[in-house]
Design brief:
By secondary structure, the chain is α/β, with parallel strands linked by helices. The protein has 11 helices and 12 strands. Helix 5 (99-115) crosses helix 7 (151-162). The protein is elongated, with a radius of gyration of 22 Å. The relative contact order is 0.15.
Length: 306
């Protein structure tokens, strides 16, 4: 029998084609309701997801034949990695394929916050001309605190420096130019986060951290929901400590509690950091090859799966 791959979140056609040319039977299952996936997963040898599919308890327990899970993206917080490992399921992802897209969105949010671009658009659609009310600030000469110096953080740093900003990088690795989080917070005019969501980074920015920031700071989060304590952020905006926030990620996605989004100085996008044609094309091709490599390392073939 042919190796069967379930693609439960949409990837580019190029990735599907690579798998099919290998002889795999591919199910384009992104329109299947997520609650129904545990009912069908037992048929499949491989599963490809992005962020929408949560590969947790029930899905894994029903995955009797599953040999490999492929995450077309970098973050792995939607996959129960430890349970998958216990079940002998390999896990592959596509690190670094979307760092340019995420970095560019971050800088887009940075500029939009500084110049009230979203608020101006909304105002003009309402027939208003609020030129004086929507006064902005220049980025040149301002200080950007970058939390995390992986591929995304480094590219954000590069782009910010090209805009004439001063950059302070916070990272745990040892390097002369890296500083501790508490040392950066009082000096930054803007702060952007680029770290994975782990038990250590959950609510990395909360009440204590907001208290250390300068008044009027602006926050950008294109990393993972949960890295910022959203209730603490709401209170910091309401108090005037934080002048504005730009969020691409949320503790709950889609967010059901919308009080943060209702604030006029909060702008948001629907977790679209990697949503560019280029990034999705790269991720789709790479995850297809990674799935094939993982299965071949397990010495699986069409005949061995009969």
């Amino acid at each position: 029998m042919a190796i069967k791959i379930l693609v439960s979140d949409k990837i580019a056609d190029e990735g599907i084609k690579i798998l099919q040319e290998k002889g795999y039977e591919v199910t384009k299952g992104w329109d299947i309701p997520k609650p129904d996936l545990p009912k069908i997963i037992e048929e499949y040898d491989g599963l490809i997801v992005r962020s929408a599919t949560k590969v947790k308890c029930e899905l894994l327990e029903n995955a009797k034949k599953l040999k490999v899970i492929g995450r077309a993206g970098e973050g792995l917080d939607n996959v129960d990695f430890e349970r998958a490992k216990q079940l002998g399921i390999a896990l592959v992802n596509t690190p670094h394929v979307s760092y340019i897209s995420v970095a560019e969105l971050t800088v887009g949010h940075l500029i939009a916050l500084a110049r009230n671009i979203v608020q101006s658009t909304i105002s003009m659609r309402e027939g208003k001309w609020e030129k004086d009310k929507l006064m902005g600030i220049e980025l040149s000469g301002k200080t950007l605190g970058v939390i995390g110096c992986g591929f995304i953080g480094k590219d954000v740093e590069r782009l910010a420096l090209s805009l004439g900003m001063k950059v302070i990088v916070v990272e745990e690795c040892v390097h002369d130019r890296f500083v501790a989080l508490g040392d950066m917070l009082p000096h930054a005019d803007f702060i952007t986060l680029h770290v994975p969501l782990t038990p250590k980074t959950r609510h990395l920015i909360s009440v204590k951290e907001f208290s250390l920031m300068k008044n009027g700071v602006r926050i950008i989060d294109c990393s993972r929901g949960g890295v910022i304590d959203q209730e603490a952020l709401y209170q910091a905006i309401q108090s005037g400590k934080v002048a504005g926030a730009a969020l691409d990620v949320f503790e709950e996605e889609p967010p059901m509690n919308r009080k943060l989004l209702a604030l006029p100085n909060v702008i948001a996008t629907p977790h679209m950091g990697a949503q560019t044609f280029e990034a999705q094309h790269r991720a789709s091709i790479q995850i297809a090859h990674n799935i094939i490599d993982a299965l071949e390392k397990l010495n699986l073939s069409d005949t061995s799966l009969g």
